[in-house]
Amino acid sequence: RKEVEQDPGPFNVPEGATVAFNCTYSNSASQSFFWYRQDCRKEPKLLMSVYSSGNEDGRFTAQLNRASQYISLLIRDSKLSDSATYLCVVNRAYNFNKFYFGSGTKLNVKP
Amino acid sequence: NAGVMQNPRHLVRRRGQEARLRCSPMKGHSHVYWYRQLPEEGLKFMVYLQKENIIDESGMPKERFSAEFPKEGPSILRIQQVVRGDSAAYFCASSPSASGRATQVGEQFFGPGTRLTVL
Asked: Quick check: B33 and A96 CB within 8 A?
């Protein structure tokens, strides 16, 4: 079983739509959680960290459910510039500092 | 504070040649990670290093690939006798060191990648 699983998509949505991605992780000892964004032919960049209490940054909301071992990302009022691949990442730092990446969910926002 | 630096950004090799990819982590970061991304595919973990130590090389192909992170200087990913299937983007990332009981050690920071083309 993969450490981190994501629906690869693509999610094709119109501008202004609300879209949600989920991600599940297999190891309950995972400690830190992140969403990264990767544009075509570019390096991944941190979008936001995910905290147990949930957190919001503008149009983006991230949630963590430790009991069910899933992480979600909600994007409201989608913009064309949101088109990218979104990577779910989990981290376990008690034994060195290992990161586990999902394979990514592709989002296409259409005019 | 300069970010993660990788060079070269683009590298062209003929089959059978060697490729050397360099990565300088962010200042103060002692952990380096290498990933490979084939065209239209996801990021695949290759190797995790600290200074002078390989922590996890479970993602490295058994032959032709090696990595090091010496006490001084950048981390090097070396591919010997390259084949066409090695053509990919190779990303390096760095993170700060983790204490034994750290619960939030921050994210990885990625370099711009080296795009390797094997002719």
From this structure: no
Q: Comparing C-alpha atoms, which of A41, A83, A34 is closest to residue B91?
A: A41
Q: What is the C-alpha to C-alpha distance for residues A36 and B87, in angstroms, rounded to an integer?
A: 24
Q: Are B30 and B39 in contact (CB under 8 A)?
A: no
- Would you say A83 and A13 are in contact if contact means Cβ atoms under 8 Å apart? no
The answer to whether A90 touches A33, Cβ cutoff 8 Å, is yes
Most confident of A25-34, B30-39, B100-109: B30-39
Rg of chain A in Å (alpha carbons): 14
Picking from A43, A89, A99, the nearest residue to B91 by CB comes out as A43
What letter represents residue A11's amino acid? F
